[in-house]
Amino acid sequence: MKLKAVLLLSLIFINAHSIAADKFGIVIHGGAGTIKKENLTDEKLEAINAVLTKATEAGYNALENGESSLDAIAIAINILEDSPIFNAGLGAVYTYDGLHALDASIMDGATRNAGAIAGVAHIKNPIDLAREVMDKSVHVMLSGAGAEEFAIQQGFDLVPADYFDTSHRYEAWKKARQRLAEAKTVEQQASVYLQDDFRYGTVGAVALDKNGNLAAGTSTGGMTAKRFDRIGDSPVIGAGTWADNTSCAVSATGHGEYFIRNHVAADICARVKYQNKSVETAAEEVIQDVLKPIGGTGGVIVIDAQGNFTMEFNTPGMYRAVKTTDKKLEVGIFAKN
Ligand code: ASP
């Protein structure tokens, strides 16, 4: 009798496990903005394509080998952070004072644990430090010098501030500083920051692993010429990043102030959870119906625990890529139509 019960239980377990292991996949983004074909050379397009492919394949392979969704997104984001093309890690934009201040966050959909860092200047891969905050500290968000002190305690090597320097971001900084100097009113200054060519290139990833666990992560240099230790949405849990196994995982990119005010990542998953909407519908509603009318530009990548995913944006382009058990690798740059 007892043996029968054990057999039955293990059968149920195997069954449940095989259902959960059915699907897995990863979706990544490299920022949304005024990304237009006429502004990109073939070589640049090829280079972007190559990094997006490499990051997606690396994340997908990790999932295939049974690694967790958290590991997979960190692997993918590290590759994007190490590429000078994107506004995260190497290639981060310059602050008003000509420095770099990086933000990142990560969330575990199984436990709803989260970690975030803001305004660090010497951490090569900010997503790794965000994960360390999640795993090894009693806090969710650390910032500035304190975050770097924590990093040192955890054995991170710091990089010199100029590690993040790139000439294309330096040129954008000079242009932004000039326009800010010319701006006479607060409104005119704000309109400089609204130009999305001064910030796009934030990176992020969401994934579903073989155990049915979701994870999301985002990493950015923020906005060119940001001032007064401005922090955007990327390290704000619920705004730029969200993951919950019972709804979905989201990483956002766009004009951070709008994403914070509208709690974008969590709002999408709340619509999935409480209104039974698909990730596609929920993301479309928030990006097109909530953000766009008030001038909030940007996009999101989303995946749910069934492996359904979407990549929604209201800008001319969003660097993005996906690979799941149901879908072979697909890389996208421009809007669908
Ligand atoms: N969301 C980022 C920020 O506001 C920038 C971006 O994603 O383009 O800092």
Report on the structure:
By secondary structure, this protein is of the alpha+beta class. 39% of the residues lie in helices and 23% in strands. It contains ten helices and twelve strands. An eight-stranded mixed β-sheet has the order 4-3-2-6-5-1-11-12. Strands 7-8-9-10 form a four-stranded antiparallel β-sheet. Strand 3 (113-120), helix 4 and strand 4 form a beta-alpha-beta unit. The longest helix has 23 residues, at 42-64. The N and C termini lie far apart (63 Å). Residues 9-19 have low confidence and may be disordered. This is Isoaspartyl peptidase/L-asparaginase. Residues 1-20 form the signal peptide. InterPro entries: Ntn_hydrolases_N (IPR029055), Peptidase_T2 (IPR000246).
CATH fold-level assignment: Glutamine Phosphoribosylpyrophosphate, subunit 1, domain 1
Runs in which pLDDT lies below 50 for 5 or more consecutive residues are 9-19
Number of helices: 10
Q: Name the CATH homologous superfamily.
A: (Glycosyl)asparaginase
Total count of domains = 1
Name the strands of the widest sheet in spatial order.
4-3-2-6-5-1-11-12
Do you know the CATH architecture? Answer: 4-Layer Sandwich
Q: Would you report the number of β strands?
A: 12
User: Could you give the distance between the termini?
Assistant: 63 Å
Largest sheet: 8 strands, mixed
- The geometry reads as globular
Rg over alpha carbons = 20 Å
CATH class type:
Alpha Beta
Query: What is the overall pLDDT average?
Result: 93
Which class of secondary structure composition applies to the elements? alpha+beta
Give the names of the bound compounds: aspartic acid
In N-to-C order, the SSE pattern is HEHHEEHEHHHEEEEHHHEEEE
Strand content: 15-25%
Fraction in helix: 25-40%
